[in-house]
Amino acid sequence: MHFLVFGATGAIGSIFCEKALEENHTLTVFVRTQRKLPTEVANNGRVTIIEGSLEDEETLDKVSRCGADAFVSFAGPPYGNKGKPLTDGYKAQIPKLVSQGTKRVLILCTPSFKGSYDVASLKWRVGEWTMKAFPSTRGQFDEMVSVGDYITSLSAEEAKWTLFRVGGLTNGESRPVEATFLGSGQDNMWISRASVAQWVMDEAIQDKWVGEMPYICN
């Protein structure tokens, strides 16, 4: 399978790329800074690297023509995020990808974005209040809610999307993953980065959660 990966220089993205190469997949990685890629990814012959930004229309056109079967993004807004650059980037990139034949789309989000199956619970409310309370994290909250709004607005004709939501991230090996909803009683707050990477790779192939927004945890 050919994956287009955003966020490949981050903790989850780099693990995903390494796992994908171990399983003989092909990668196109879209990065701002190539030197931040793990050496084993950057030097692999099955990896194409495109350096640029989400604001560069010419680069987005080049990315859209990479021939990927699936677009996977582990990108998230930084502390102090202002505006909605990630949402705007998805709005610019995904239609281009779809027009070139890339239909499978898997996008990282957080419990800040709520779904119709979610049940209100204190632990998630506290987290939401905390994100909203501080200027340094309020921008992150607004951006991720905006990402969720956009991805879930896509029709089946536009893309086979999955919005996978994660809570607290830990290090360590890949472990069994529970795909559920907030307030289910199975919604543990933690998941290892390796578990996220493996779950996304499996989901891209198995298509169990197309058009859904599961919360995943260990």
UniProtKB/TrEMBL annotation:
A Pfam entry, by short name: NAD_binding_10
Residue intervals of the NAD(P)-binding domain: 7-202
Descriptive protein name: NAD(P)-binding domain-containing protein
SUPFAM superfamilies named among the record's database cross-references: NAD(P)-binding Rossmann-fold domains (SSF51735)
Single GO molecular function: biliverdin reductase [NAD(P)H] activity
Family: Belongs to the avfA family.
InterPro entries in alphabetical order: NAD(P)-bd_dom (IPR016040), NAD(P)-bd_dom_sf (IPR036291), Polyketide_Oxido-like (IPR051606)
Domain of life: Eukaryota
